[in-house]
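Page header: ASSEMBLY MODEL / two components / 223 residues total.
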Amino acid sequence: SQQGEEDPQALSIQEGENATMNCSYKTSINNLQWYRQNSGRGLVHLILIRSNEREKHSGRLRVTLDTSKKSSSLLITASRAADTASYFCATGSGTYKYIFGTGTRLKVLA
Amino acid sequence: GAGVSQTPSNKVTEKGKYVELRCDPISGHTALYWYRQSLGQGPEFLIYFQGTGAADDSGLPNDRFFAVRPEGSVSTLKIQRTERGDSAVYLCASSLNQYTEAFFGQGTRLTVV
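Prediction written out in full:
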């Protein structure tokens, strides 16, 4: 079963533009993580945001969390061709079982 | 190494054979997870270990799948009588505990022919 649903499913932008991806989920969570995946292999951890946090930054990444709307967004500023990848949100509901969405496939055109 | 290590990176096996997939977690991480990812999908939870014990194996699809972590470090996912539908990327992750970031290995791509 899936908890998180990313939107859009696919996104294509020009290098230098900002990319925004959204994640909606269904049940209460303790935290939410965003991951990047290149070429269908290992997942790279980007940011973990806890349910009592509203926004976190890491370099060119900005994550927001709105628990009232059960949604999160990932913003990548000044995108680069190397940001081309699939991005997943994973929700943790106080247990170890992180539930992943189907991902957003981002393509950054040089 | 500093990260989660999975071996082999690729495994091709014939239908009906037995396979073992290995995961070396980050040193000191007590929590270990196995996930399975099919093409175009997000990772699906299989099993979680806290220390040596399987705290939750509810994601294992059937009794052909089994995983162990005898010393609380390295884990092995075992699949008996493999079927073509078992073909997927098997991902292992570890974390300090259940509330912290989970770090993934590069995965093992299993192909059953």
